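Course exercise 7: structure representation. Students receive a sequence record and must write out the corresponding structure in token form. The form below is the worked example handed out in class, using NAD(P)-binding domain-containing protein (207 residues). Read each field label carefully; the graders check that inputs and outputs are placed in the correct fields and that the protein name is recorded exactly as given.

STUDENT ID: A-19
EXERCISE PROTEIN: NAD(P)-binding domain-containing protein
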Amino acid sequence: MSTISIVGAGNVARGIATRALAAGYEVELLVRNEEQGRALAGELGGNVSVAGIGAEVAGDIVAIAVPWSAVAGIVSAFGGFAGKTVVDATNPLNADFTGLDTDADTSGAEEIAKLAPQAKVVKAFNTVFAGNVVAGEKNGEALDLLVAADDAEAKAAVVAFAEKAGFRVIDTGALSQARTMEALAWLHMQLQFTRGTNFASAITIVD
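STUDENT ANSWER:
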């Protein structure tokens, strides 16, 4: 595998693409606005291609890096990403940004798995702020990347990519752990306002 496909052209997409390029991967940006995609590709430099929503996906791993409200339409447009390993980098925030848009007995990642039964869904990148992902470190230390999945092969592929990209990967277990990861990400977002950290802090497990 040499290509990482990313749906989106925002900050999360920029972060994942930056780390993929630094690790020697080619990057494919799958975007609704191809002008915006080409602008990001130009800023990223390196081997970056741009294609529209619904195009054939080049990478075996495809990261979803769009707002939660767009996810269902994206999955449908790509035919459920059949045969792909799908990295869910989203957080399922509700429309007024007052909490999560999922019930307690599910998660955004599990809902994507229902929408894409022929794909292998891995939850990752949702607990690390995009600016830190672009930087690739925090205070000189590797970033902790929490990962959850049911499919062992898909999880191993994402772990291998993330480790090559410079993260310290922490396997949290089954895909149902995405519920905890999404709740943790929401808490971390709220703490930005009470602690004044401007979305620059990082969640770290101290061993």
